[in-house]
Amino acid sequence: MTERMITSRRRFLAAALMSFLVVAPPAELLAQGIDPLPSWNEGPAKQSIRAFIEGVVQEGSPNFIPVDERIAVFDNDGTLWSEQPVYFQFAFALDRLQDLAKANPALAGQEPYKSALSGDPKALAALGEKGLLQIIGLTHAGLTVAEFNAEVGDWLKTARHPRFDRPYTDLVFQPMLELLATLRASGFKTYIVSGGGVEFMSAFTEAVYGIPPEQVVGSSGKTEFVLDGDTPVLRKLPEVEFIDDGPGKPVGINRFIGRRPVFAAGNSDGDQQMLQWTTMNNGARFGLIVHHTDAVREWAYDRDSKVGRLDKALDEASRRGWLVVDMKNDWKVVYPFEKKQ
């Protein structure tokens, strides 16, 4: 099967996956008595999302936005899928590190790899950004981009989340899948703008979210072009090129999308500047924060969390008019598999 055939098949599967959610503009579905956001509880959060979309698409409305300006950006970790107890990409890196340590036992005695391999949550939390970047650099570099994509794909097929004993891609948020589909049915182009690695995310976003790789903005390491015989390849290097987090997100949006969004969704202080860039302007703008408040179905955390800390952005939300989605109260279900139970 050729690369073009594989890409076409992936896009067909992604479209088929999302088609059951929204097959017509929301106004038409509502007129037929069909709720395009069935996993959202009725209340102010759901009403505000509906009102924004209806105003954007209605010609003659003061909030009408032309189709080519309907850009929506979403953080990934903690916004579209879970991120506890560690970011899922870091879980992938830890598994890769274990494999590398088997091949090179000396790594187990060197920091930060020793602490990472210990499995001690406190030791992992104490690694800091420098330690995390070292581990990401070691475990992600040396492969070609195609090899790395295959490694991520294989890992996603076999790895299981420690709490739910399910594939990591099962831990996507059903209400956010519905929101993505509703926006697209309303003429929006949806992008991921996340601190995660762009190549890591691009390995699954089309199949899981219906968002193709060219609409994924993320952190990136340096790559080099080389000829392997007569085969051109891009090889990943152990150097950071761009961090798509915090103030880096508006920079990434400008560089890779080229339009200022009118809708942005995040869940942490790392999304604060993206929300500011999107909403602090005249005209219809919408900012959304997913607040993790459900310790039973997911996790409850915000200001003191080592992963996905939500502090300054939470304080700013009311002043800016950002919608804070209370996961416990605003969502009927969190994950798609809950609907089958």
Characterize the structure shown:
This protein is α/β, with parallel strands linked by helices and 341 residues long. Helices cover 42% and strands 15% of the residues. Helix 4 packs across helix 7. The longest helix has 17 residues. It is globular and about 65 Å long. The N terminus is likely disordered.
Radius of gyration: 20 Å
- Low-pLDDT residue intervals, each spanning 5 or more residues: 1-21
What is the class of the largest domain in the CATH system? Alpha Beta
**CATH topology category name of the largest domain:** Rossmann fold
Element-by-element helix/strand order: HHHEHHHHHHEHHEEHEHEHEH
Approximate shape: globular
User: What is the averaged pLDDT score?
Assistant: 91
- SS summary, helix count: 15
Strand content: 15-25%
* Corresponding CATH superfamily of the largest domain: HAD superfamily/HAD-like
Number of domains: 2
How far apart lie the N and C ends?
Answer: 37 Å
- Sheet with the most strands, sense and barrel status: 7 strands, mixed
Helix content: 40-55%
**Strand count:** 7
Q: What structural category arises from helix and sheet content?
A: alpha/beta
| CATH-level-2 architecture of the largest domain | 3-Layer(aba) Sandwich
Task: Name the strands of the widest sheet in spatial order.
Answer: 4-3-2-1-5-6-7
